[in-house]
Amino acid sequence: MRKNTSKFLLKGGKPLHGSIKISGAKNAASKLIIASMLTDQPVHITNCPIGIGEIITTREICEALGTKFKKYSNNEVIVQTKNVHSNSFSASLGIINRIGVLTVGPLLQRVGEAKIPRPGGDKIGARPIDFHLSALEQLGAKVKEYKDFYLLKATKLKGANISLPFPSVGATENILITACLAEGKTFIHNAAIEPEIMDIIRMLQKMGAIIDVMTDRTIVITGVEKLKGANHNVLPDRLEAASFACAAIASKGDITIYDASQSDMISFLNSIRLIGADYEILDNGIRFFYKGKLKPICIETDVHPGFMTDWQPPFVILLTQVDGVSMIHETVYENRFGYVSELKKMGADIELYDTCLGSLPCRYKNTNYLHSAVIKGPTTLKPANIHVPDIRAGFSYLVAAILAKGETMVDGIHYIDRGYENIEGKLSKLGVDIKRV
Ligand code: UD1
């Protein structure tokens, strides 16, 4: 795995003020680049966060398969895959994240075979790819599993009636990308409908695909024979926007986040108001501000349009500053509170439970997974040396460090670099004293 051995040294204790513009969404941009491989024509992607690790890895994976990057600068990418010259990429690229699994569709469509190393990703749960593999089989692929890789073959892909056991983002994307060029209609029942998926649908539609999103979480793809090139602007990163918003409010600050999109953040915005902070919707962004004592809240993470699981870690830090007892029930990943032990070192009062502390039991009821958290506040966080275990937790450690008066050293920042573009630049602009050492 590509590791960055540097650390962040951050002097906290000051409220955030000022404005920043957020980047294009990591969780859409990487998939858009892969979807471009469905055509031999150029695809032009703007607002692409080209500096983050996830996009760099996507580029390396696509290049290994035959894609040429004709432009990769100024947040613009022009990609073209005239020919696919390999059916595989190295295991060292596969282990970095889960993006490689999405190359199966283009590879099957273009060369009839895909050899995919076992994927890696954050340590937030088992994160299997069984939904992906089962769907690909239903579309006509033959799947063989080996110790270190999966081998998939297909002479012809045909539309299928696929029901996902859970609205998985990755599996929905994999089916979408694969089914556009399959013969006939594909139904994805219980599909994920995250804004990033809608962005992929928008680009596929520009490329010539026929995709309908029904009101009941069913996506219907009518296969076409060929796709063409397109221009597409990546939607803004609602995870990045929420992370900065939490930092601003937790530090009792007031910031404007340009490009933050209200429609992609409805449940987050409601939670901000419910805890007694506020926001103002502007023409080109959202202003978030502290306006007095914060109140506790109970939150359940969920698939879109619910409260996104990736918002959970920075929101937990915000809840350490709330006056009272808050609760978060994580229902998307079984193991997404791994980052809490480091926060306790900084003085956070957070207890984890294996019970479903929400209104409804989730898939992890009657398991030993610590998937509910009780957060007591307000607590004064103190500086410490902390180690980042995954990408979203990474930003939340930075938020904790912003609150702690004194010097906090944050280690393991390759996880932060994987998902956040120019993080030091943006935080410095908001008044944070942060250095890479
Ligand atoms: C994507 C996002 C991630 C976000 C997540 C949920 C990217 C690069 N990552 O991850 O930031 O937290 O959506 O919004 O876009 N599952 C299975 N079998 C499968 C697939 C998924 O059991 O084959 C389970 C997972 O273990 C998890 C749940 O389904 O418990 C949701 O996972 P999924 O939506 O697929 O997440 P990703 O696409 O990996």
Summarize the model shown.
The protein is an alpha+beta fold and 437 residues long. It contains 14 helices and 23 strands. Uridine-diphosphate-N-acetylglucosamine is lined by residues 27, 98, 125-132, 166, 168-171, 192, 309-310, 332-333.
Description of the molecule:
This protein has a four-stranded mixed beta sheet with strand order 21-22-1-23. A four-stranded mixed beta sheet has the order 2-14-16-15. Strands 4-5-3-13 form a four-stranded mixed beta sheet. Helix 5 runs parallel beside helix 6 and helix 8 packs parallel to helix 12 (391-403). The protein is built from 14 helices and 23 strands. The protein is of the alpha+beta class and 437 residues long. Helices cover 30% and strands 24% of the residues. The chain binds uridine-diphosphate-N-acetylglucosamine.
User: Percent helix among the residues?
Assistant: 25-40%
The biggest beta sheet, please? 4 strands, mixed
**Averaging pLDDT over every residue, what do you get?**
94
Strand order of the largest sheet: 21-22-1-23
Low-pLDDT sequence parts: none
- Percentage beta strand: 15-25%
Strand elements, count: 23
- Total DSSP helices: 14
Shape: globular
Structural class: alpha+beta
Ligands present = uridine-diphosphate-N-acetylglucosamine
Cα distance, first to last residue? 21 Å
How much is the radius of gyration in Å? 21 Å
